[in-house]
Amino acid sequence: MEVLYSSTRNGDKKVTASQAILQGLSEDGGLFVPDHIPVLECSMKELAGKTYQEIAYQVMKLFLTDFTEEELKNCINRAYDSKFDTEVIAPLVEAEGTYYLELFHGATIAFKDMALSILPHLMITSAKKNHVENEIVILTATSGDTGKAALAGFAGVEGTKIIVFYPKNGVSPIQEKQMVTQKGDNTFVVGIHGNFDDAQTGVKQLFNDRELAQEMADAGLQFSSANSINIGRLVPQVVYYVYAYAKLLEEGKVADGEKINVVVPTGNFGNILAAFYAKNMGVPINKLICASNENKVLYDFFVSGKYDRNREFMLTSSPSMDILISSNLERLIYRIADNDAGKNSEFMTALSQNGSYQITEEMQDKLGDFYGNYASEKETADRIKDMYENTGYVLDTHTAVASAVYQKYVADTKDTTKTVIASTASPFKFTRSVMNAIDPKYNEMSDFELVDELSKIGNVDVPNAIEEIRTAPVIHDNVCDKAEMKAVVKRFLGIHA
């Protein structure tokens, strides 16, 4: 059955999957959502034993219904190949009776690789399908991981350029080094004076700038997005939750139909929304546990029904979650508002004008699938230390937030359902925070000394993504104020006023 996409702010206009992927963000500022969430055609028993690529096809063909089998399989096979350092793509590791779904085995050692390895192929296929002759300019804001994963995915891809904005002092040293050393004539990286929300807001404004769109069209260019607001990012993320359950079933860790809980460290809400979609497709998921750091805007929302970004912005050791405007939450708000675009628009207008909105009690009642909590900086560090001392397994800071929140969930609910925790980044991306948590004595070491020490104590090889930036020269040293983002984009694209 065909799946069409409409905007969360205007339910009338329908587009195909490929058109939604190309546009990234709807013209009215809304996010594209499917007109229904399709149900898996294979049982979990049939999926058990299948490869990651095979399961990806079974999931993605249901959402991307205007792609042919050949097109979609070509995209999948080109994405999930030797760029990943393990054939299983997303291994499940058991530690302390919980299953960690390692989503960091791709080229840039973060979960963003899972979707951004395939997005360039989906994008180019979509462009051909829709006879687009313009060059596609990927415009993205990053809180640390999306930037490098998008750059790696689009670098050198014909017919595309990519511009990434990141908060200059809001990412880890390794994350920054990964971005500013990126090769490729079609890549452009800019640090902004401000935080991630400033970068994200600036990018959304550029997308909605009609005058700029016309200038770009005249120059044979058009914007698209690689942020998690692009449906081409969200759909591939659904795959690994289906895969995780199939794997547990295959290994006899769960009985067929037995429910699991899923814990996701959450900033922009895309990764946990993908788990919600997987549940609605038929994966036996009980609770979706939303883990926040000290920027606990989502925790407060799940407790009170009020979304309020009017608060101090905290810089934490888990920077990919340092976000006060969780863009993908809009897709959930639209759904619990009974797909009422008008109602959703009112909430989003209130958010942009007043910085907050309050959902109705009726809508709150529809959030029963979710549990929210948060971990402080101390709780996050303690969790890394305890896990290492108890098992030898090293968590990155984001995964540690999820693990600490999961402990709170069990204490609160006494629920002993088997649980999968999304492990969203390699500890090598956040070596200083991770090693300091294990023992403050490591604070004297340089970043790359810490990398080697982590490899030794964790008994894991240094990932190639880290080795290649050890001596790489800085290529991108662009920095600007948030008010200058438009001028910087025009300069890079050669559009002059």
The CATH class name of the domain at 92-109 and 232-460 reads Alpha Beta
Average pLDDT figure? 95
CATH topology annotation of the domain at 92-109 and 232-460 = Rossmann fold
Main sheet properties:
6 strands, mixed
Structural class category: alpha/beta
**Low-pLDDT stretches:** none
Radius of gyration: 21 Å
The number of helices is 22
> Strands of the largest sheet, in order across it?
4-5-15-10-11-14
Q: Strand-residue fraction?
A: 15-25%
- The backbone outline, from C-alpha atoms, is globular
The appropriate CATH architecture of the domain at 92-109 and 232-460 is 3-Layer(aba) Sandwich
Number of distinct beta strands? 16
Kindly state the percentage of residues in helix.
40-55%
Intertermini distance: 47 Å
Outline:
The protein is of the alpha/beta class and 497 residues long. It has 22 helices and 16 strands. It is globular.
Based on the model shown, name its key terms.
497 residues, alpha/beta, Rossmann fold, 6-stranded mixed β-sheet, 5-stranded parallel β-sheet, 22 helices, 44% helix, globular
Secondary structure: elements and pairs:
Elements: E1 5-7, E2 10-15, H1 17-23, E3 32-34, H2 44-47, H3 52-63, H4 69-79, E4 92-95, E5 98-102, H5 112-116, H6 119-129, E6 135-141, H7 145-154, E7 160-167, H8 173-180, E8 187-193, H9 196-207, H10 210-218, E9 221-224, H11 231-250, E10 260-265, H12 270-281, E11 285-292, H13 297-304, E12 306-308, H14 329-336, H15 341-354, E13 356-358, H16 361-364, E14 370-374, H17 377-391, H18 397-413, E15 419-423, H19 431-438, H20 447-458, H21 464-467, E16 478-481, H22 485-493
Parallel strand pairs: 5-15, 6-7, 6-9, 7-8, 8-16, 10-11, 10-15, 11-14
Antiparallel strand pairs: 1-2, 1-3, 4-5, 12-13
Helix pairs in contact: 1-6, 3-4, 3-11, 4-6, 11-12, 17-18, 17-19
